[in-house]
Amino acid sequence: MVTRPPAVHRPPAEPVIAGGPWTEPTFADSTLGDNVDGEDLTIRRASVDALGIYNGSVVAVDPATGRVLSMVNQKLALGAGFQPCSTVKISVALAALSEKVVDPVAKLRLAGMRMDLTYALAHSNNFFFATLGQKLGYEKFSYYARQFGYGEKAGLDIPGERPGRFPDAPPRNGGVGMLTSFGEEISQTPLELAALMSAIANGGTLYYLQYPRNQAEVGALVPRVKRHLEIEGLLPLIKPGLRGAVEFGTARRASEDGPIAGKTGTCSENHTHLGWFGSFNDVGPRKLVVVVLLTGGRPTSGPLAAGIAGDVYRRLGEQNYFASASVTPAALVSTQICCSR
Fold first, then answer.
1. Is the peptide bond before 21 cis (omega within 30 degrees of 0)?
2. How far apart are CA 248 and CA 241, in angstroms?
3. Is residue 266 part of a domain?
4. How many domains does the chain have?
């Protein structure tokens, strides 16, 4: 009698058809080749377990210091990046508020609807942010986008990191409206988004992200300030939209016991479907930024990325990770390397 081995349940294969539609698998072992010697292993385990079988990256950052606590799928996270999709709307909102081209509480009438900034962020309304982009113009939005870190490395001496890209002119496809609603022709890395979300979480300090590769480097880490962003007064105006995304908008799958603020992004680039979610926990003594990027076929989306991030927060919450503030040694005094005007 021949004994059959137990059945192994694998995700269905997605055939790649010549000419399209998808050239990246949805499912993969995203931990291959990662170095974990300098990581917070509690966060690492939560991130790996939450990501599961999906092809993607999870980056977790301490927004108070800029330390990268865990980076799952380091090859993807450190690469040249992908179109940011609707996550670009965070930068557009901040730029529009800075230039006073949008009233945060007034409702605009667009395509037969009336909506304010909170609703537009929570539901990721493309028409609203294309309109803000047209009011800002390319030059003004470009200035703010570069201040927020687009087109430059987010890390400080992280081996293998490549910068994203910001276009030198409005996109040929749709002009500034497509730039500010879909991130057309922008290339964003998970580290760039994590650095910006950290600045929003901590009140406006854009740190160089640092990624210790062993425990000696963890002990020697000194936070480095890249520049201070003049956004502190604007944060109460965008946080309702970022929290609304989780509570009643596009990121509902991230919802869990504690308040989470974040922004989803879903689009396709070069026959690859993308799902983004940039987030931070918005209450409690210990803050954490979690960025998820998924690549693959049709199942890949921003809401799916939000669900994975929500699972990271849930797993850490079950271990009381957020119950007490992180301890920062006295030696870790922020050192400013450069600042913006």
1. yes
2. 10
3. yes
4. 1
Low-confidence ranges of the chain (pLDDT < 70): 1-20, 257, 325-341
Residue 35 maps to a domain = no
- For residue 285, the model assigns a pLDDT of 85
* CB atoms near residue 71 (< 10 Å): 30
Measured CA to CA, the distance from residue 46 to residue 35 in angstroms comes to: 16
Question: What pLDDT does 324 receive?
Answer: 74
Using N-to-C axis directions, what is the helix angle for 88-98 and 190-202, rounded to 10°?
40
Asked whether 145 and 95 are in contact (CB, 8 A), the reply is yes
* Strands across the sheet containing 56-62: 67-72, 56-62, 289-296, 272-281, 260-269
**DSSP category for residue 2:** P
Q: What is the DSSP letter of 253?
A: G
CATH number reported for the structural domain that contains residue 108 in this entry: 3.40.710.10
Contact 145, 158 (CB under 8 A): no
**Would 73 be classed as within a structural domain?**
yes
pLDDT of residue 6: 39
- DSSP element (H, E) containing 75: helix 74-77
> Would 201 be classed as within a structural domain?
yes
Question: Cα(first)–Cα(last) distance of the chain, in Å?
Answer: 79
Count the neighbouring beta carbons within 10 Å of the beta carbon of residue 140. Answer: 17
The boundaries of the domain holding residue 109 are 41-336
